[in-house]
Amino acid sequence: MKVLVVGANGQIGKQLVSLIQDSNTLEAKAMIRKQEQAEHFEKIGAETVLVDLEGEVEDIVKAADGVDAIVFTAGSGPKTGPDKTMMIDLDGAIKTIQAAEKADVKRFIMISSYDTTRKAIQEASESFAPYVVAKHYADEWLRSTDLDYTMIHPGALTNDKGTGKVKAANTVEPNEVPRDDIAEVIFACLENDSTIGKEFQVIGGSTPIREAIDAL
């Protein structure tokens, strides 16, 4: 299975591409925004494709040529304003979903935010609300499609070393989770078709990742 990783140069994306390239069953295609980002992926044998998420849907359709699954890990980041949040976390996500449909790539994994409900929007701080709104509507768009999607809602992301263990369920209490472990969760979902049509929250925990995903 070849997997297009959108946002491959992000921390989760980089780790996911490495996991895929180290596997015997999956192959990564890293979608990056700048040519200078390619060297890292070429060193580990991953194919790269240069696409700006603020560009056209057709650019992403071309990037999806020959792939069997798409993972959306892109994000505008905490240092950008609401404008970039809307362009990447909302418009970029929806364009990627549309591209999957046009390219006839059924399998789609979305890395969302911990809580994207209307209640979460209302309770979010003024600075955080645009991000929750963007994720809310991107999630709604994905739910309305016929794609074989899985939606992952991670807790507060950290750069701590992954433990290989998480807690995953429809709803879990707010807590942190290492980005390394979220990459492992994505990888496990790619290899487990029983996660199709499911969405779940995930935080650090005591259950081995594959066991936690199998139990969803």
TrEMBL record:
SUPFAM superfamilies: NAD(P)-binding Rossmann-fold domains. InterPro entries: NAD(P)-bd_dom, NAD(P)-bd_dom_sf. It holds the Pfam family NAD_binding_10. This is Sugar epimerase. It comes from the Bacteria. Residues 7-192 form the NAD(P)-binding domain.
